[in-house]
Amino acid sequence: MFDSIFQNLFNALQWGSFYSLIALGYTLVYGVLRLINFAHGDIFMVGAYIAFFLSIFFFKGDLALSGSTTLVLVIPLTMILTSICGVTLERIAYRPLRRKGANRLYVVITALMCGLILENGNLAFLGASRKSFPELIDKVVYQFGPISMTNLKIGVVLSSIIVFFILNAFITKTKIGMAMRAISYDKFAIPLMGIPIDTIIVVTFVLGSSLAGLAGILFAMSYPVLDPFMGALIGWKAFIAAVVGGIGDIKGAFVGGFLLGIVEIMAVAVFPSTFRDLIAFSILLMILVVKPTGLFGIAKSTKI
């Protein structure tokens, strides 16, 4: 019994890594703009497709590079190209509304529309057929007592942890990170201090979208079947994880992602898989009932 519990816990860490990376993107944008970027899950999907086409080009194309070399090239390129996608959405869809002082509800509706455009644009140009992601690295199974781990699963978990610590250091130690935190406190006073708000917002979207792109690569390598709507459900779940952790706090988003992964996997281990989402969301709802601001969230007063 304990053997299966430990095995499921490790599997949960892998799923939690995907949720955490996506949730970090949600919480970064919300922390700076107070905007819930509902297109973020579909940016994750775009990242997975970008990684797919880059892998085909480097691994199976005329270059025919080795899998490890391909992976070294694909990861940074995918993160860069995915961040360009996120910044493009910000420039085209969100910035004009922000400059016109549009109601926050209109911005949320625009974000939903952008997600649908990404999904259906993918469907229109690439078709409904699923893509099979190439196997870039040979899977190696490690046995630690009763727990079996693959090199890919270990890499996914370690990647998410390393990214969190790098992001946390960036937010707390650099001038841009301090400017991001300052905007979240008072965006009206920031221009008076000479801080370019648009530049900081672009950096925020670059960071958030690149994390979604990294999650797309790791997810595609772990579950190598891609379809245009793959980002919808996992994006919503990552958003819920960010809310449960305390949206606006990167530590909360990180912990919330792992918490959701653990709850889901443990629910499947005990109950039929059809009960997974029901049980997981019920537990998360109870957490929010007890602590509406999330695990690490802090209630804030609004000046009128």
TrEMBL record:
GO terms for molecular function: L-isoleucine transmembrane transporter activity; L-leucine transmembrane transporter activity; L-phenylalanine transmembrane transporter activity; L-valine transmembrane transporter activity. GO terms for biological process: D-alanine transmembrane transport; L-alanine transport; L-isoleucine import across plasma membrane. InterPro entries: ABC_transp_permease, BCAA_transport_permease. Keywords: Amino-acid transport, Cell inner membrane, Cell membrane, Membrane, Transmembrane, Transmembrane helix, Transport. Its main location: membrane. This is Amino acid/amide ABC transporter membrane protein 1, HAAT family. Coiled coil: none annotated. It is found in: Cell membrane. It comes from Desulfocicer vacuolatum DSM 3385.
